Amino acid sequence: MRQLVSRGKLSQESHEFLPAKNPKMSHFVSQCEANGLNPQTLVNSNHLTTSSRPTQTSGTPGMGPLIASLAIFAHGLLMKKDEALCTTPGALASLQIFALLTVFRHCPSSVEAWCRLSSTSRSQVSGTTLNPQKQSQRVQMLFLCSCFLLCALRGYAVAGAEVGTSMLLETAYGWKRHSIGLLVSATFLASIPLRSIYARIRSSFSTLGWIRIFSGIAIGGTMLIFSKVTYLLPGGLLLVLADSVMFPALYLAEGLTRGLMMQFAKENYVFSVNLSSFLAIVLNNAARSIAPWLSRLNISASDDPSEGQDLFAACQLTCCILFLIAFEAGVRYLSPQAVRPVIVIGMPSLNEAENIESLTRVVDEGCQRYFPKHRCLLVNADCQSTDNTSAIFMNTATRCQKLALKTALPAQGKGAALKLVFSCMLEVNAEHGFCIDTDLKTVTPEWIRAFSRSMDFDFAAPRYLRHRLDGNITNMVIYPSMCAAFGYDLRQAIGGDFGFSRRAAEAFLAHAWPPKVEKYGIDIFMTTTVLKRGYSVCEVELPPKIHSPNLPKVKNMAPEVVTVLLGQLDTETLKGLELKSLPRIAWQSDGPMSIPEVKVDPAVFVGIAESYFAENQQCIMAHQASMEHVLDLQATLKSKSLDMALWARVLHWALTTQLNREAVVKILCYCFFLRAAQHCTEVQEMSNEQAERVVAMQREKLRLVAFEARE
Questions:
Q1: How far apart are the first and last CA of the chain?
Q2: Nearest-angstrom CA–CA distance, 707 and 331
Q3: Which residues contact 445 (CB under 8 A, 6 or more apart)?
Q4: What is the pTM (predicted TM-score) of this model?
């Protein structure tokens, strides 16, 4: 299976293997393999299992058709034309049966061996899953066998119609062979408009509903083959129309069915993904070998052409009806789990052993309450914690399935952890994802409910109630900058807890990441990426966020966030236009939301500023001349403070200057620490509402400077 995963990923919508174009998936795949997991099983399994025979079947798919095609070529070269015409189908069928028989060496030889294999695979399950709807092996085998029958019926119906239509057009309607070949081939192109219609309105029906619809369309198409109907249009045109309706409908119905078949094959200990694909191909081609002979036999069975045509039409109609019956007979074994969309909840961590268990239980409860129609995958992306965070996570009993991933390097950063979450989301074909900081102390299941209502948007940013002394990087740098750059009142662009669609996750992984994005710069990278691409964004109201204090790490955090911010806004023009509000998901709770008191000594920021200046003095002083028109650096060093108006000019300069990026970051961070100290002094005795108005004034100061600069 490892060979299979490294070559491509399975599309949930069809049964084809698509090449994996994203190299960022490789680390996710290696992490799954390190845990003994098959990444393919995450797409639609109810728990995580390992493939019990990873190497025995990896080279099997496609060998039967390959051998058969070589045999046809050899017969055509070595034998006379008439003899080759008679012997080729027999040789083809013989080779396919031989290939089918060779498959059995990959299967256990006895029921006892099946049981041993099943128990071995179950012993390799990662995580705790309490899913009462897990399907038994017998039920899975019954459904898979019905899918194999559907593949054979589709092959028979299409090949029979193709040959039978050609024969009727030639013998009954006098068409020339080159015209027949062209039109019959063109009927397959009808799959394009039907596939386009399906792509536009596929959300209107479930996968099972679409299979029934396409089967019904195919049955309707075969009705046009009967002789009494074909007389409605002259020249046999209705035969061509019948093929144009039946071919694409059967192909799409079988494609969706194979998708479901692969989902069950990932959980089956006997029919693996490779083996199921191989059997489907063999049976399909075997049926295609028989269909042309039987179709010609039916048409020539009577001296009356119309009777032969009706016999052929009845055979095709029966085949299409059997397709629908076989599907209905098999689908009753299908678990509702197999068609439920996947949601990934990412929990990046570093040494959060004290909090990870309670957080996991809360998130699991929220998923069970507010995502009843989805299958939730909890992903702990850990930065190689030294306190067994991942082990505690995996040992926590949950009803959702779980996966533990690790970054390549210890303490690599939150961004590196979330990259694993994004890759996992794409690999399992999840439609939506969320990330929640693992140091959260106040998260409740209602947080999951709030984010569950944001799934109509590509990106959901939090809008917490925050203490006036908390979130200084957001208040002083990020909030005013985002408002000036994009014209949206996005309050918490680096809040830490976000919702994102599959399209957004693809955008995050579209290009190589700068080093700072893999650390604290990830939040602003995500937010600016979706805004720059014009994706739909909303805000989710949340109660106060109580978490590990950021003040001890603000000295390292600020340069990383600022570096990514300046890089992301490098091509943006600051706007002084009217500020627009984003759609907002209101918080629903009966209880009061009080903001716990936070104490911050402004002198701490002054001390950080002095320490930061001492470490970067040479660089800062070397570039003071480039900003003399904005800031008197010497006076600032003496006063150790920065007022609101002066800070707005410094921030505008940093966002628009062409000076060396590293120097700009160091100057801006030094000024930020001083501005944060003065801001804390100014709002310390205010209420939280009054302090919020001060932050809004700071935002308007920058927008005013940007407007004046444009004028």
A1: 62
A2: 63
A3: 362, 365, 366, 369, 370
A4: 0.63
